[in-house]
Automatic annotation (TrEMBL):
Alphabetized PROSITE patterns for the sequence: ISPF
Protein role: Involved in the biosynthesis of isopentenyl diphosphate (IPP) and dimethylallyl diphosphate (DMAPP), two major building blocks of isoprenoid compounds. Catalyzes the conversion of 4-diphosphocytidyl-2-C-methyl-D-erythritol 2-phosphate (CDP-ME2P) to 2-C-methyl-D-erythritol 2,4-cyclodiphosphate (ME-CPP) with a corresponding release of cytidine 5-monophosphate (CMP).
Signal peptide positions on this chain: none
Protein name: 2-C-methyl-D-erythritol 2,4-cyclodiphosphate synthase
Family: Belongs to the IspF family.
EC number(s) from the headed UniProt entry: 4.6.1.12
Quaternary structure, from the entry: Homotrimer.
Organism: Luteimonas vadosa
The keyword Metal-binding is assigned to this record: yes
Iron listed as a keyword: no
Coiled coil segments of this chain: none
Keywords from the named record: Isoprene biosynthesis, Lyase, Metal-binding
SUPFAM superfamilies: IpsF-like (SSF69765)
Length: 158
């Protein structure tokens, strides 16, 4: 078994939606990023890479590389899964926490779990996903951006 953790933040900017956990959520702000700014999938990728000490998302998908401009972060997630599989590992389970005052996450949580589970080839019951505000405190509390934390457990294949 191997354990990994990941954390990501993106700031709000102009826009009419955010991508979170591979799900498009209508919002009066967007997230500033080189890719689609999906903090949930970025934190999860970092957790999976971290579990095998393979560095982080920026190492494998550098923001300096135009290939990843406006990229769908589900592609990062699928590539991270492939990196694990090449080395004989698979996801046991993952757990994600999203920190923001808005948008409301609860109505979209099941869709995010299903999307992540599908991309990682695991059952939905292997993906935990929850949200919290930070009670008005800090950058998330001031509505300046969204943070996400992820933990995952990897199991040896076979
Ligand atoms: N952006 C968010 C934040 C929270 N929730 C849900 O509301 C519950 C209460 O949040 P607190 O910060 O007051 O603990 C929380 O358990 C989430 O289910 C949400 O959907 N979206
Ligand atoms: C995802 C990448 C892709 O270029 O860029 P961003 O979308 O800016 O996101 P970040 O969380 O800063 O991770 C770095 C990069 O890998």
């Amino acid at each position: 078994m191997r354990i990994g953790q990941g954390f990501d933040v993106h700031a709000f900017g102009d826009g009419d939606h955010v991508m979170l956990g591979g799900v498009r959520i209508a919002h009066d702000r967007g997230l500033l990023a080189h890719s689609d700014g999906d903090v949930v999938l970025h934190a999860l990728c970092d957790a999976m890479l971290g579990a095998l000490a393979l560095g982080d998302i920026g190492l494998h998908f550098p923001p300096s590389d135009d290939r990843w401009k406006d990229s769908d972060s589900r592609e990062f997630l699928r590539q991270c899964k492939a990196m694990l599989a090449e080395r004989g590992w698979r996801l046991g389970n993952a757990d994600v926490t999203i920190v923001c005052e808005a948008p409301r996450i609860a109505p979209h949580a099941e869709a995010m779990r299903a999307t992540i589970a599908s991309d990682l080839g695991v059952g939905v019951d292997a993906i935990g996903l929850k949200a919290t505000t930070s009670e008005g405190l800090g950058f998330t509390g001031r509505g300046e951006g969204i943070a996400a934390l992820a933990t995952c457990l990897l199991l040896r294949d076979g």
